[in-house]
Specification:
alpha/beta, 5-stranded parallel sheet, 7 helices
Amino acid sequence: MKHKCFISFKTEDISYKETIQNDLNVDMIDKSLNKPIDSQNEEYIMRKIRKDYLQDSTVTICLIGEHSAENNFLENQHYIKRELQASLYDNPNGILGIVLPSMTNKIYKGTYTCNICGQEHSYVNIDDSTVIKEFSVNYYIPDHNGCAWGPDDRYCLLAKWEDFIKTPNSYINGAFDKKSDPIKNKITVFPK
């Protein structure tokens, strides 16, 4: 089944967006914004994005690159933040974060032994230094019981670029499936 996908990205990462659109065998209906909206009015631009692109999309793919962090004060995160907020509001899209190669070692930090359960857990650095807050709070959902988060404890899915390009449809389907998962009731949407 084809899902209607919106790709949220920083301009510096457009080549990855174009690879998804043109070079991968992705079973999706592309709802992405491909031409800039000719306006300087941010409210108008976001209204157009919500109405023409996000309104009937079902999965939002967030490209996570060097310029996507919440606390990157040299970057304007306004549009990617608002795109994700709109994707999570009301009838939320499934959210798939794709970690681009330049960010792999900054996000995937290996494993550690938990001092609570004694098990090995993966250390995945998803916070304001790597992504925008709208992604991190729905990846590490605060209302959580246990010493580590598992797939059932997250609304946002995460994939390394090199894994995504091998089986893109499985990751998109997984994000879409979260729309009907009970974890949907724990989504946090920050004010627009």
